[in-house]
Structures are given as structure tokens and as C-alpha cells.
Input
Amino acid sequence: MGCASSVPDRNAGSLTGLNDGSTASDSKNLKVKLVLLGDSGVGKSCIVLRFVRGQFDPTSKVTVGASFLSQTIALPDSTTVKFEIWDTAGQERYAALAPLYYRGAAVAVVAYDITSSESFSKAKYWVKELQKHGSPDIVMALVGNKADLHENRVVSVEDAVEYAEKNGMFFIETSAKTADNINQLFEEIAKRLPRPSVVSV
Amino acid sequence: MEQLYGSHASPFRCRFLSSYLSQIKYQILKVIVLMYNCSSPTWTSHLGLIPFGLVVPMKSWILLVRLEKYVMTKIFNRTFAPVPDEKKHDDQLSEKMALVQQFIRPENLDISSTFRNENSWLLAQKELQKINMYKAPRDKLLCILNFCKVINNLLLNGSLSSKQNPPGADEFLPVLIYVIIKANPPQLYSNLLYIQRYRFRSRLVSEVAYYFTNILSAESFIWNINAKALSMNELEFQKKMESARAFLPVFLSNSSQNISGIKFEYKGNKMDRIKTNKSIGEQLSATSGSHQFHSQSSEYRKDPFIANRRSVSVSESQEDSNPLEEQELARYFVEYPFLYTSVGDLTIKDVETLLHSYKKIVIEYVSLSKGKTDINQSFSSPFSENKTQTNNNNIDSVDESHKSVEN
Output
């Protein structure tokens, strides 16, 4: 893995170690690293853009690429969670590089396209990888995107729910196009995060 | 000090460095204590740095950044690529990129046609090549970030003009890898290691960490590149690597030009010309290879000279002069080793040789030009000699008169 193997582990405890000087992570304000995995073309970057900017219009201007974005949400219990979202390249040839990205991530969102069974099997591959190499207390979410195209559906909800339950994941179907369930996805993740009092031990 | 620069520094720390660091450690601590005393009680930032596990106020942070720059610039030579293994890795990586860059196409890396814009990628390449101009880890890191930003903006423009989805990592990473291979920045691996070891950990987070991870993974991808990674047939890949290796001397001489600061860029037509002159390229490399290991001074001089001629012949794309002729021509200059030497290359020892060859040439020139005028006069042809000739013309006229003497 070349110099990759000597990546510092110091920022691995993403909940405690990710302070950039402007905000501090405490029990009220969490900062988490979220890694986005999934085949290319399942709409990973669209999900993020929907969440971060509340828009889908591909022609509207954004200032930077969608590969790294951050967004803060407020929870009912008056805590805030800042997500730092790391996108990964989904093409097969880059699969071996993924561990560099999910190292130290507190959350992994594994996305697939409900109209492509191939992308679903790819999602299963990522789940296995994360179970093998990811940090043990990582929060995983399985996301079936493009739910608006239900007439072309090939991956049934039952299959996905069953798989998610078996692997202790949270499952949701979203549509980046119609914004369905996008915010719910991130709110649900935020609720499932371990509180810092637990993590920082 | 380990707390400051991370435990990864320790295995490679040599004794000199260690004592040097412990000296400056006290200086740093003194400065920090000073800053504590004069800073306001509200500490705005928690930087996770730092000795004593204490928080450092913003002002001292700026100071620490300057200290990092100062210290790392001072000890750069001891800390950058400190072990031979790393230099070797650099060389192998660079060679790999030099080979692959000759035949790789954007489609080999899944770069969609919307985002292919090789001309504007040159801009990004330039950003990356700046990395060796800086010594401080922070500055090097900034080069990397600027490089990523340029690519991001180019992708964004591409997506806007084609009304496609905004580019995510699916688009970003392939272009990043492609541009790195084309840029082939010297000592990429050492640069990355250096940043990892000596940049403040607390500043290698969030977006910076993301883009740094992208570069790391690009390096890892290139290091492990094979037929499968490029969607190529194994046989085809091997063949392309071999033919690329045949051209490698030409490419290497170009990259050495890059390092010395002479601007050089590939254009399509140059590449084609190199390919059509394959046999010549091989001949040339054979010539330079035979001179490579001579240490005697005159022999030694020939080598850079030939290398120089070669790269010049490659870079002159407009006039389609035949490299065979150039090689022929080069043989005449072999006796004049200083012709292409710059002032910085000369040593005191060279003065004697230089004087000797100067005398030799003057004597040769005077006697030849005298002989030439004599011959001209005997044929009574009106031929006036230009006395203010440049060095080059001098030799040409020597050559000419030589021929006329033979006649």
C-alpha cells in the first residue's frame, strides 16, 4: 500500500480528533466523518448535494466539487451534528483504495440504485469490506437511491430490509431527485451515533 | 518533540536530527509559554496539538505555523527522503509514470468524455509541479490543495457546460490520477511522506485531510498500476510498457529539463515525431549509454552534451530537422566539450583544460583561416572574411575551410 500504510491514526477517533480550531467537539456538538460508498452512477453525489444544498438542479452553481462537503444538522434534543462527507470513487478499478477513505469514519453510507441489481451486489460487497476492515463501532446505513423510478425497480424493498437487518444496518430508500427521505436519512444516522461521552473513553 | 511532529518521525530520526530537535524544542516551549502569558484568557481554539495537552490560543498558533516553517526549512535536507529506500521508491514511481504516461488514455481510467479537457489539465499539472519549490510541509500541502482545487473547478465547468450532475469523487479521482501521471512530479512519494510526518496533525483534518487522502490513494493506485487497473489486456499492457521503455531515455532527459527549471511541455505533434523516429531514439540512447560510466573529465563532458542535444532535438518541433543529421553534426562537436557547458558547471580544475583548448582552437583557427585566404587568393576569388563571428560560426568556418583545404 506504499506510503498509505503510514497514514496517521491520530485522527482516527473522528469524534474527538477532528478539531480544526474553529469548533470543538463536545457532548452538544458532534463532528463526524461520514464516508459514502457505492457503485458509480447510483447518485452518491446527488444525495449529498440534496442534503447539503437542498437542491437537485444540476445546472445551478456550486462553488466546489461535491466530493467533499460538510453540513450541520440540529437534533430535537438541542445537540448539533456536523457531518463531514467523504465521497469515494465507485468504479471497480478504485475499489482497493477505499480503506484509505473509510479509515476513521464514524459513519458509512452504502448506496445502491433500486433499478440495478448489479449496484445492489456491489453494495453488499462494500458492507462486507466494512465489516472486515472498518472500525468496529461504525454506524452503517444502506440506502436505495432513485426511489422515484419505482416502475423500473429490480431490487425489492423486502430483500434490502432483510439484508440490512441481518447486518445490523439502518435501511432507507431515498430519491435525490424528489428529495424524498434525504433529510430523514441523515437525521436517523445522527440519532444512532454514539454520544461522545462513550466514544472519547 | 514527538508530540509535535508525530510518532512517525521517530523511526527515521538520525542522531544529528535528534540533538538538533531537542535544542529547538526548548525554544518552542519558551515561545509557547510566552504566548500563554500575553494572550487573552478566552482561548478561542482547541488545537489538539500540543505539548502538555494544553490548549493554544490563536496567536500562538500563527507563531507555531511560522516556527514549523522555519524549523522544517532549516532541517529540510535531513528530513526529506532521509533513507535510500524512499529515494528508490521515488525513482521507481517516477519511472512508472514516465512509462505509463506515454500510452494512457482518459478512457483507461473511466474519465467520461464530458470531462476530458487535456489542455486545461496542463494548468493543474503546473500547480502540482510547484511542490518541489517549497520546503515547509504546509507550503507543500498548499500546492496539493491548489492542484485539487484547479481540477475541481475544471470539472465543475465541464459539468456546467454539459448540464450534467455536479462532479463527485467518481469524476474527481480518475482525473486526479490521470493528471498526476501526466505531470510526473519528481519525488512525489517522498513529498507525501514528508507532509504526513511533519505537518501538524491538528491541521491535517477535514477538507485538507480529504484531498490529501485523494493524493495518497492516487499514489497508491499508480504504484500498483497493472493491466487490470487500466482495463487492458495483459499482453497489450506488457507490449505498451516495453515500447514505452524504448522511448524512456528521451522522456527522462525531458524530465531532467523540467527539474532544472526549463519550461517544457508535451504537445501531440512532438509525441508523434518521437514515435516516427523510433530507431533514432534508440540509437541516441545507445550513444549516451556508452558514455555513461566514464569518469574521465573529457569523456564525462560528452554525456551531458549529448543529452542536451537530444532534448533540444525533441523540443524543437517547428522545424522538422532530421535528427540523424543532428547526430552527425554532434560528432564534430565531441572535441569541444565546453561548448554547451554553463558557467555554474565549471570547476577550478577546468580552467587549465579550458585554456589549453582555447589556445589549440585559436592556433587552429588562425592557421586555417590563413590557409583559406591563401587558397582563395591563389584562385583570386573575392571572398571577405567576417572577423566578428560567434563561437558557433567559428567552428562552422573552421569546418568549411577544412573542406576547402582538402579540395
